[in-house]
């Protein structure tokens, strides 16, 4: 019986010292015979070493990767920075993942299938590939947590099976000194704290990390100088 007074059927199974309870439905809608049949099926799955939650999800219909992506987007909608970020999140999957695994059931997606998605862009578009990998992992993590997959996606193992991505070496080319005044005027048209930080770096010749980590006790406004701790 629930705290509110409603009654429901529960199948309690104990195996290897662990107890698990499985809901069988409301007592007002499910007969005793139906509840017993559902309990019998659960015990059979347990005896076979299968996860009853996963098997019940399969019977109800496992979503495709596209369908699971839609559910993940809905679940995370309130946490997106803005609509543009959500659109970018979806676009990477539509462009690179959907052509390969979009119509596959999330329960059927394997490590080799994910590796094939990433292999095409792993070296040519390394940053995009990393984002695709992370977003595929997010969708499959949701599928696992929802009972649609028997195991988590082996994302780390998949990465190890791909070649090492090239690292970006060197620094960005410096802007010619003659163009700096015009650049600063253009920069001042923007309204953001990052614009102020960049202008501060330009006029003080401070490094990026020094500017981002600066505190007021390092800045002497009377003497017009800064001292990095």
Keywords:
two-stranded antiparallel sheet; about 230 residues; single chain; Integrase_recombinase_N; DNA binding; 4 strands; DNA polymerase, domain 1; DNA integration; Phage_int_M; Phage-related integrase
Measured as a percent range, the helix fraction is 40-55%
Alpha carbon gyration radius: 28 Å
Per CATH, the class of the largest domain reads: Mainly Alpha
Q: How large is the count of helical segments?
A: 10
Strand order of the largest sheet: 1-2
- Specify the overall morphology: elongated
% residues in beta strands: 5-15%
How many structural domains are formed by the residues?
Answer: 3
Number of strands: 4
End-to-end separation: 64 Å
**SSE-based structural type:** mainly alpha
Q: In the CATH hierarchy, what is the architecture of the largest domain at level 2?
A: Orthogonal Bundle
Sketch the major β-sheet.
2 strands, antiparallel
> What's the pLDDT, averaged over the residues?
82
CATH topology of the largest domain: DNA polymerase, domain 1
Low-confidence region ranges: none
What is the string of helix and strand elements? EEHHHHHHHHHHEE
Oligomer classification:
single chain
- The CATH homologous superfamily of the largest domain corresponds to Tyrosine recombinase, N-terminal domain
Domain Core-binding (CB): 63-144
Family: Belongs to the 'phage' integrase family.
Keywords: DNA integration, DNA-binding
Organism: Sphingobium fuliginis (strain ATCC 27551)
